[in-house]
Amino acid sequence: MQQGLIPNVSVDCVVFGFDFTNLNVLLIERNISIDGTNYADLKLPGDLIRLDEDLDDSAARILIENTGLSNIYLKQFKSFGSPERLKRKQRDLEWLRKIDHPEEHVITIAYYSLIDISEQRSSDLILSDNASWCPVHEVTDLVMDHMDILKGALEHLRIELLNKPIGFELLPDKFTLSQMQKLYEVILGTTFDKRNFRKKISSMKYLIPLNEKQVGVAHKPARLYIFSREVYTKTKRDNFDFSV
Amino acid sequence: MQQGLIPNVSVDCVVFGFDFTNLNVLLIERNISIDGTNYADLKLPGDLIRLDEDLDDSAARILIENTGLSNIYLKQFKSFGSPERLKRKQRDLEWLRKIDHPEEHVITIAYYSLIDISEQRSSDLILSDNASWCPVHEVTDLVMDHMDILKGALEHLRIELLNKPIGFELLPDKFTLSQMQKLYEVILGTTFDKRNFRKKISSMKYLIPLNEKQVGVAHKPARLYIFSREVYTKTKRDNFDFSV
Question: Fewest Cβ atoms nearer than 10 Å: which of A98, A155, B138, B228?
């Protein structure tokens, strides 16, 4: 009886995978058959939380169960709770009826993550059969309000990238400025003029040039840089810090 | 039957009120009588959300119903969902039994706000009888996990203050550097050496000195400043901006 009177709570996970070519998002298939036609709609990994679970634990469990991925750091970023969020599309309504929850209202707590899925690191990222990486710019339709959740996570990610040094975790320890530019371009979904980009980052004192160049590349080897967290922390503090 | 099997969802509101003397938080009393003794425990404004409500609407409704305050901009900042969050203290257990929800698990979506409650602006902030402003530094105990929620909101507020120009919304249009220092001291809960503070803010190009001084003050009138959002936006962009 209470079903329908109080909302359920779920967790949805937006896992971004970066591979230097694309910013991808981890999606799973929701298969439904209506009047003899099979549909494989795409959705974010997600499920109802259990009563005895803490939210973060719930997110970790749901990600493993849905996609096979474990040990991924997930960060809560926003809850979505419009009463209409599950009911805007006909196929979602059919699906709710099929699983016997036609009147369900579910508030979802959304988590996100950004991980390196480039070749050298992706060997231990084995996905379940119905999970796959899709380039974010190719995702045009997801079930229910999952497009809104994806957009919210993307906005969150881009603000983080512009305000915190999270990008450097995806670069090799020693990297070229071209690699750095590529990372910003892929995650922000844009392209930069090389000279403007270099001018912009020339003020970043925490980018330390090395007396080392790339080796084993076909083109003219470029200078390597490291990111100094120490300098970053110090210059950030100089800027606008009132901590005692 | 479903009660106890799926969690309820609530909204809790952390409304900070700034008055140049203290950073206050809006609290309400939860009255309970146990074995003939009356207790007036303090809690954050909060309640269960309704099934047909969007989360932001729910927060606004609950704030009005609990405290009488309307038209306050509330921002969602985090959800709290530890299964034990309601059950750590004996009086909370008694209270849950009294309202007939002994097994309830409630996930709460927390909102926060920062408003000006100094004399000249507080005339339209009429509170309900059981609601009151308490200086944050005097709050040592709240019901359930509300201290955790308050601490989370405070941390969020301080990070915002150090990274965004939210403080200027609480200052008069023309202000002195002493007023600005006081604002940072009150919200960050600390004190600054005057010279160090001035040195720190001398790099903020968006603080524009005027050819005007205070009038009608007993002490030596100080220079007035304005905050330029235009310069702030521009210098912020120069710093670390890759927008196209």
Answer: B138
Structure tokens at A232: 């970053």
Number of cross-chain residue pairs from A and B with Cβ atoms under 8 Å apart:
113
Residue contact A163–B163, C-beta within 8 A: yes
**pLDDT mean for each 10 residues of chain B (244 residues):** 62 94 94 90 94 92 94 94 87 85 83 87 81 95 96 93 86 92 92 88 88 89 93 70 47
Please answer whether residues B107 and B79 qualify as being in contact, where contact means their C-beta atoms are separated by less than 8 angstroms.
Answer: yes
This complex has an ipTM of 0.84
Q: Touching check for A2 and chain B: CB below 8 Å?
A: yes
Tokens describing residue B4: 């106890």
pLDDT in tens, A27-58: 999 998 888 899 999 999 999 998 889 999 99
> 3-class DSSP state for residue B208?
strand
Provide the β-strand partners of residue B109.
B11, B79
- Give the largest Cα separation in chain B, rounded: 71
- With an 8 Å Cβ cutoff, are B81 and A49 in contact? yes
Is A200 close to B242, i.e. CB distance below 8 A? Answer: yes
pLDDT score at B2? 42
Going along chain A from its start, the domains and CATH numbers come out as 8-163 (3.90.79.10), 165-240 (1.10.10.10)
Helix, strand, or coil (residue B234): helix
Q: Cα–Cα distance between B98 and B30 in angstroms, integer? A: 12
Which of A158, A169, A81, A106 has the alpha carbon at shortest distance from B53? A81
Tokens encoding A133: 């990486």
Amino acid of residue A120: Q
Residue pLDDT, tens place only, B92-121: 988 888 887 766 788 999 999 999 898 766
3-state secondary structure of A138: helix
Confidence at A203, pLDDT banded by 50, 70, 90:
confident
At B31, list the tokens: 């009255």
The amino acid occupying position A204 is: M
User: Do residues B42 and B132 make contact, with C-beta atoms less than 8 angstroms apart?
Assistant: no
Outline where DSSP puts E strands in A155-196. Answer: none
| Cβ partners under 8 Å of residue A73, min gap 6 | A113
Burial label for A32, CB within 10 Å (0-12, 13-18, 19+), is middle
